[in-house]
Each structure stands twice: as C-alpha cells, then as structure tokens.
Backbone:
C-alpha cells in the first residue's frame, strides 16, 4: 500500500515567486503557463499571496457534481483525476467546490484540477528547494480539516491581511 | 517567424484619437535592440527622428513606452521597462520595476505598449487576451497609490469575471499606475507597481500624467511565449534558480541592512543632501528594521527566488497602517539619512508616503533635501515653505513631499526636479545659478542614487555617473565602455532584474538568452556591438536634448560639485573624487565606444553600429 500524501499549505509563508505555477505547467503542459497551472497563486493585495489548489475533500463534492462522470479519484493518493475526453466544460465541478478551485483550462476549456503529479508534486519540490515551505508534503491520511482549506483565496487573503498588517489589514481588500 | 521569447506583437495606442492598433517589429530590429531600454530608444527615434530636440517630453506627441523584453517572465526576476523622452534628462532612461504586469501582458499576447497623444479624460488601458481597450479612470484620478491599486484590482477582476463567468476564478491582473505626483506632472515622478515598487528614474510618471493615463493593466491566460530551445531553457531555468537560492545574505537581508553599513563601512551614503556620507548610527541597523517592522521576510515577484523584498508595516502610533517594502537601501538613505533621520519608523513612514504620492523615492527626496539645504544656507526662507523646515524632522519632509506632489508653494518649483528647481530658485532670488547648483546633486538632470563616489570604497567610482547615459542612475553606472554593457544595459533591454543577474555566471546568462531568442548572442558580441549600439543611441538622444535645455559635452559629463568637496567626517575624511582620474577615464571611455573626445559618436561608429540614421542630427553636435 502506498503511503498517504497531502500537500500542506501555509499561505503566510508564500513568497509570491510563483515557481509552483511554472513547475506545474512545465510538468503538465511542457512549458511555462501560469494560467494552466493546477496550483495558482492569487494576490488580492501585494504581500497577500495565496496558493490555491485542490485540498482533496473527504466527500469530493466536485466528483459528486459531475454530470458525466468525468471526475474520479486516484486510488493511491485521493487526487481528483479529470477525464478530458468526457468533460463537457459545464462548470458543475467549479460551482460545487467550496473554494472554487477547479477552472476551465485556457487552452482546451476542460476542467483542470491538481493530480498530485502521481505522488511527486513538482510545486512542492521547487517551494522546498527555495526554503519557503509554503507547500510541504505530509504523509497524513484524510482529515476533516482538509475541506476547510478549500476557500475562496480572497477570503483567505482577508484573514492573512489582519494577521500581517493588524487593523490596517481590514482596509486593504475592498 | 517571431524570434523566441517574444509574443510578437506590440500595441500602439493613440490616446488623442482613441485608436489602438497592433504593430510588429522585424527580427533584425529585435536582434539589434532586444526590447525594453534598447527597443524603446529605437522606436522613439523612429517616431520622432531629426525633430527630437524640438520635442517637449510632456507634449501629447511625445511617445511613452511600456515594454517587456524577450527574457521577461522566463529568466528569473521579471520586470517591466518604461521609457520615452525623459522630462528630466531629455535623453532616455530604461526605467524598470518588478511587477506581474510584465508576465501578464506577455501571457495576453503582447510584448508592450507605445502610447502617444493625450486622452481627453483620465483613462487606463486594459490589455487582455481579447485585445486592448481604454477604460474610464475618472474615479481613480487623485487617488494615492494604495487606493488606486485596491480599486483597480477589484474592478478589473469583477469585469473579467462578468465577461467570462464560467471559467472559474479570475486571478488578479498586473498593473502599473501613477499617484498624485505623476498626475500633477512632478518631473521626476515614478511609474508605480505593487504599492512600493517603482520605475523611478526618468520621470515617466509625469509622462503618464501628461497623457491623462492613470494606469496600464494586463491579464492574460495564455502561456509565456515559446522559446527557441525549450529543453535547454528549462535546464538553465533550474540551474539559475539554484545559484540564486545559494545567495543567502541577499535573500535574508535584501538591501535592507545597507542603510547602516553603506554609511558606517563604505562611507558613501547621502546625509543631509550629501553634506556628509558617513555615520555610525546603530539605531539604523538592519535588525532594528527587521525585528520591529518586517511582517513578511521573504517577498518575491514573479519567477524570483532572490526574494530581496521584505514588507514593512507600522502597527502602532501615529503612522499606524503604513506599508512599504524593506525600505530598500536607496529609500533608507534618501528618505532617512539624507533627511538627517536615523529612526527606522520615520524612515518607513516617509518611504511609504513617497510610494503613495507616486514620487520616485530617490529623486523626489533628493529634491526635498536640496530644498532644506537651501534653507540652511539662507537662500530659501521660512515663508517659501510656510513653516520652518528642520533636518532630522520627519514632519518637515512629510510636508515637503506632499507640497511637491500637489505643487503647493515652493513645492511647485521643487516639482521640476533638483536641477530645474535650482535654476528657477536662482532666478527667483536673483542669484547666479552656480551659487545653487553647487548644492544640486544630480548628473544631467537625474538626481544621483544613494552611492557616493568620494570614498571610492563603494561600487561607484570616478565616471560611474559622469559618463552614464542615464545620468545619476545608480543601477546603470559606467566603468569603461565595454564591461558596462553586460550589466544594466543588458538586463534593462532583455528586461529582467539586476538582482537575479549579479552572482550568476555571465556565460550562463548569455546561454540562456540564446536558448530563449535563438539570436546569435554572446557576451563578447553584446559588449562590443549590441550594447554599444544601444548606449550610443542613448548618448545621441541625451546630447540632442531640448527643447528647454541642452547638455554641454565634457562640462556636463562630470560629477556634481559636491563630489569634489572633501568628505568632512569618517574613515575617509578629506577624500574627494579624483578629478584627474575622471578626466582620464572619460577620455578612455569615449575612445572605447568610438565617440570623439567630446563624447559625440563619430560618423564611422554610427555606420559600424548600423546607426547611420542618426548621422544628420549628430553631425550638428560635432
């Protein structure tokens, strides 16, 4: 049996270098394509950089919502796998996700979700290499907390803002 | 076929006619000028030509370039380059800042934008995958940098979501913008990005203001442009980052520890308008900034692992809520020691204020310090300011920077930049210009970066500024007319950061450039041909100057008078910049570049560098 695996994420440690986007897209698309990266770094205000990626909710609302069964889970790590042939670009998975994490690929318009690179996520490798540790691999099984990470990045940034800037943090995102 | 690294299209926006079209530049021009600083100078000449000396930079006809380069976004440390005829030097500056605008515009399919004309109301340009459009900016005009950024980010994201709601969340757009200083055409105002990043030198904030252009915003969903040798580029990308990650001190401290050490060790930090360059104020040490104010210690821009930026925030007291970066060394100096201030909190406040007003944090504060020295010398009076200005007093400089941005009282004169303000005040007070110019620390209208030359212990020396085609710009200093070309001239034209360049073997950088573009590019060719072409073109434009001022060769190819006054204090007490060495090196510099003894490019040099189009104008300078 393979060890469980999850990408732990700490947006307060994110430098905003976006190498995760570059490494992910080089792996999946063959070239640097930030908007086709399965992890995307949002920045509603400078300094508030929020890596946004699938958190593998225990109940997989996206998989449940897909009307054509294009989404399934990887038996080893629980990553959401998209069958791009079956996907009709309807957007049901995007609407079902509590954090609106999936998006339609800018090239082929298909639902795009982190597949954990088959167990060796490229994004984590470059983040670790640079010593940021905003993304780290943890060998932990499913947990009720995971779904709580699936949030709109602007909401996450609002919280980070107060943590980082104090009272001023209330004003930096309209 | 478009060479690698380029999206292949530039936008030409006529703000007077509300017309936007796409243009392309041929392979030859791109190989000869690359992008950013180099290409902007060439496009400027192509648009203006022999009428250059008659062109007022703030006239609607004056073009403004916002360009990337072929390495932007792909090589670590992406930046945007702003250029055009500088309203301070009357030459050109390749003025760069780090911002995701740079990769976003390439991802939208464009390498840059050239603006001409003047909009009849405040506007911003929105660039997306579907093209570009002018948007109303009436509600943004008059807002400071922070509010501009917050509102634009929200409204552009909402607009893009409205247009394509089904694709999922829209990631934030990138943008450059101006604050009140740019709007009011403060001559040395900056083009701003990300609250505290600035295209500072050159005064291009004033150019944007003169065109009623508040911001340029980009959001692209495409890939970065294809490159000539993708597999090599990917390997070089990994290798370059490994090297940058190894630069531990730079990554930990940025330049935010230098406010102490450049004064204490190299004795080259401006103090009270360069009256001194040495201090040993331990209150101004790096840890005193870091421990109390740094709320984010590893802050990077797109594709950067140097993360030299650190975010400062004041959380208590009367300046509560002020946010800026470190401040970096330049602003620790210019918004600190240059004002006689050694208090990190006051320095952070004044740096944040400069950011919010859209002043260049080097140039505007240089002028403010100059003004207070004129008061010290009894040339300016309390009545000129409306209060009694004092060295070391944060409120003094808070007020002067606001007066400059809003062009109030003496601020209206100071808003012309240090050099022009000196001439105007001399006229106002019935004094000879030289009586004031001896306190004006600039070269060719561009106030000098915070690295003095008198101690000779810093990286800046004798002709660093004197020979520089970008005047006082400390990022682009001159050494010997050959080695210069592989530094800032290259990074400003390929458009990426100096701080992801220094420390990486130059052969690797040029291999990377070749893998991206496919051009026949290497270090030697860059230093002996392409770099000199760009610098020779910039030199010609600088010396053509006009319309209100024209630099005199040799006489103006010099350091400010203050740099020949003996240092009054510190370990290098008594030292001055060596005038004999300046003269000797300037001669050698001109010779190396194929310019005559007055620094005017010869006919043969113009021909050799394929700059024959300059001959008619340049012949009048000989």
Residues:
């Amino acid at each position: 049996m393979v060890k469980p695996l999850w990408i732990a994420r700490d947006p307060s440690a994110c430098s905003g270098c976006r190498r995760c986007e570059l490494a992910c897209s080089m792996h999946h698309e063959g070239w640097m394509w930030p908007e086709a990266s399965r992890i995307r770094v949002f920045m509603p205000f400078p300094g508030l950089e929020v890596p946004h990626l699938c958190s593998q909710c225990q109940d997989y609302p996206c998989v449940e919502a897909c009307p054509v069964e294009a989404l399934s889970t990887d038996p080893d790590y629980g990553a959401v796998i998209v069958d791009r042939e079956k996907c009709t670009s309807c957007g049901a998975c995007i609407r079902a996700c509590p954090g609106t994490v999936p998006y339609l690929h800018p090239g082929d318009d298909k639902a795009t979700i982190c597949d954990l690179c088959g167990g060796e996520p490229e994004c984590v490798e470059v983040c670790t290499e640079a010593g940021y540790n905003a993304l780290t691999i943890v060998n932990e099984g499913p947990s009720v907390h995971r779904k709580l990470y699936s949030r709109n990045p602007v909401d996450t940034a609002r919280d980070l803002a107060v943590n980082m800037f104090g009272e001023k943090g209330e004003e930096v995102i309209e | 076929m478009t060479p690698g690294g380029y999206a292949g299209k530039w936008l030409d926006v006529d703000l007077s006619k509300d017309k936007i079209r796409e243009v392309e530049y041929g392979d030859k021009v791109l190989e000869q000028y690359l992008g950013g600083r180099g290409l902007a100078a060439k496009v400027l000449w192509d648009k203006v030509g022999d009428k250059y000396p008659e062109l007022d930079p703030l006239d609607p006809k004056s073009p403004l370039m916002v360009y990337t380069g072929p390495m932007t976004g792909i090589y670590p440390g992406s930046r945007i380059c702003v250029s055009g005829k500088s309203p301070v030097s009357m030459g050109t500056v390749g003025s760069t800042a780090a911002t995701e605008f740079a990769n976003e515009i390439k991802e939208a399919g464009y390498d840059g934008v050239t603006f001409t004309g003047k909009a009849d109301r405040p506007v911003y340009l929105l660039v997306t995958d579907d093209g570009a459009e002018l948007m109303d900016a009436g509600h943004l005009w008059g807002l400071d940098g922070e509010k501009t950024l917050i509102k634009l980010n929200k409204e552009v994201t909402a607009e893009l979501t409205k247009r394509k709601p089904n694709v999922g969340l829209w990631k934030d757009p990138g943008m450059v913008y101006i604050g009140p200083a740019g709007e009011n055409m403060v001559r040395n105002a900056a083009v701003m990005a990300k609250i505290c990043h600035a295209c500072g030198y050159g005064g291009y904030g004033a150019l944007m203001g003169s065109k009623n252009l508040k911001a340029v915003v980009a959001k692209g969903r495409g890939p970065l442009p294809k490159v000539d040798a993708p597999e090599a580029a990917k390997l070089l990308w990994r290798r370059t980052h490994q090297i940058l990650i190894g630069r531990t001190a730079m990554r930990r401290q940025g330049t935010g520890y230098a406010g102490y050490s450049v004064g204490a060790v190299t004795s080259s930090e401006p103090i009270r308008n360069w009256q001194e360059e040495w201090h040993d104020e331990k209150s101004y040490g790096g840890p005193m900034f870091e421990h109390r104010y740094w709320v984010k210690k590893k802050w990077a821009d797109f594709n950067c692992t140097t993360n030299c930026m650190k975010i400062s925030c004041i959380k208590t007291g009367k300046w509560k809520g002020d946010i800026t970066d470190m401040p970096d060394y330049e602003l620790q100096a210019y918004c600190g020691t240059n004002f006689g201030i050694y208090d990190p909190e006051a320095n952070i406040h004044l740096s944040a204020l400069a950011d919010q007003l859209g002043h260049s944090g080097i140039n505007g504060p240089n002028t403010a310090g100059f003004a207070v020295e004129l008061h010290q010398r009894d040339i300016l009076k309390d009545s000129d300011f409306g209060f009694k200005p004092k060295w070391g007093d944060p409120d003094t400089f808070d007020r002067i920077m606001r007066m400059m941005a809003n062009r109030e009282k003496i601020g209206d004169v100071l808003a012309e930049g240090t050099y022009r303000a000196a001439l105007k005040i001399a006229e106002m007070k019935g004094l000879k210009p030289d009586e004031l110019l001896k306190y004006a620390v600039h070269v060719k209208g561009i106030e000098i970066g915070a690295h003095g030359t008198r101690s000779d212990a810093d990286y800046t020396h004798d002709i660093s500024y004197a020979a520089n085609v970008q005047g006082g710009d400390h990022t682009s200093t001159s050494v010997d007319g050959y080695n210069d070309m592989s530094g800032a001239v290259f990074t400003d034209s390929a458009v990426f950061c100096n701080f992801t360049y220094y420390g990486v073997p130059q052969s690797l950088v040029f291999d990377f450039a070749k893998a991206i573009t496919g051009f026949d590019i290497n270090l030697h060719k860059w230093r002996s041909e392409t770099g000199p072409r760009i610098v020779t073109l910039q030199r010609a434009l600088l010396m053509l100057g006009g319309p209100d001022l024209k630099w005199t060769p040799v006489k103006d190819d010099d350091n400010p008078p203050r740099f020949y006054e003996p240092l009054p204090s510190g370990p290098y007490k008594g030292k001055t910049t060596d005038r004999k060495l300046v003269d000797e090196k300037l001669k050698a510099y001109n010779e190396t570049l194929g310019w005559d003894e007055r620094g005017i490019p010869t006919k043969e040099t113009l021909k050799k560098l394929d700059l024959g189009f300059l001959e008619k104008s340049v012949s009048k300078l000989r």
Summary: Chain A has a mean pLDDT of 97. The longest strand of chain A covers residues 40-45.
